[in-house]
Give the backbone structure.
Amino acid sequence: MELKGLGSKTREKIRRIVGSDNCSDRPEDLYLYAFDAMNRRFLPEMVAHPADASQISSILKLANADGFPVVPRGAGTGLTGGSLPVAGGLILTTSRLNRIIGIDRENMTAWVESGVINGDLQAEVEKQSLFFPPDPSSAKFSTLGGNAAENAGGSRAVKYGVTRDYVMALEVVMPTGEIIHTGSAAMKSVTGYDLTRLLVGSEGTLGVITRLLLKLIPKPQAVGSMLTSFPEVRQACMAVTNIMTSRIVPSTLEFMDRSAIDCVKDYLDLEIPSEAAALLLIEVDGPPGVVEDQVAILENVCREAGAILFQTASTPEERESLWKARRSISPAIMKIRPLKINEDVAVPRMKIPDLIQGVEEIAGKRDVRIVNFGHAGDGNVHVNLLIDPEDKDEVARAHTALEDLFKLTVSLGGSLTGEHGIGIAKAPFMYLEVDKDTMDVMRRIKRALDPNNILNPHKTFDYEPDIADREIRAPDA
């Protein structure tokens, strides 16, 4: 089916489904949904805020009948353009699906609607001494449905895993309008195909998640926080390896290279040695006595690897001071250039030094400023290319550097994305990691579940090179 624009009769049908107060095609409203955290702009034709799965089902059935694209959207915090309406059509938000339906303390689970903010659920379950580990940087703003659609990770993934590891069951509206229920409330279930795992991480292309059953765990009794620095990146990576083989699994193991350290020095309340080339932020959690012992062991591990600074936090205020280094990176680097291209490549842990060295060579060869930080424990490095969007030559060099980066990553046995997803940002490079036959299987799955290609078209393997022609310019300030 060839998709087309929303005609007046179709718009009226959408109004009847969700109510006139819950949809809009006014230009000032449409512009609010034209962009996400990727900072590119594609204007939708209409925005709808359905109340439940039944209304979403009616909209998707209408989309198949009238032939228009539908793009699901949570909070719009994605970094790869997954919620951008690149083909126009209808933006379908989950803003009204915002209830924590119930927390089962005995079974340590929670039913939530997909528009619930991650941080709100974390706060609620911690009141009952429970813990929801997935903690992306956007946790205070991003929705759990969006986290599941992108299979979000975060700094605690090294010990606790990613969102997929905590989704037990889903209610999903399929592209053709059926409302299905996957998974089970039982901790073990192998009945039928694992559709939950298929849908989590599908970037809103295979279904609209409306409810999630999430696994919870006991809240850790204590946390130990450490900041340590090294004169060489390779020493920091050796410390990471030695930590991971020391029979201690940290809950956080964050990495910053020299360029990132230089950016945040002015924001810190502590002195970082001038010769520091790499910095690790480490946390362990568990019973208080165990945490104390683990901090002592990790200090020895880091000093044996060559640490020139090892600082611990004994109060919440001191812990916040250590985290300040990591949290200051994004605002700090925006002072260097007004726009950053934030990539999230992942490599085997011991390949991090090769990755950092290769990135430094790319930065020199392409004359682009690059800052690196990320989750060392799982080899997930955020490579940030800093550019001035008004400098067309610098923009062109940055895009060439991006291709260099992805080729380097794959050559090291790594992945284009550890937690942000493909969207439109990495779609042109997906072939580097996924072979043709595997890509064809993904296309056949998409066609089987969405025969008219109405749900979030032209993302991941369905990318169209001329997509930039549809982009709109930001209004002048």
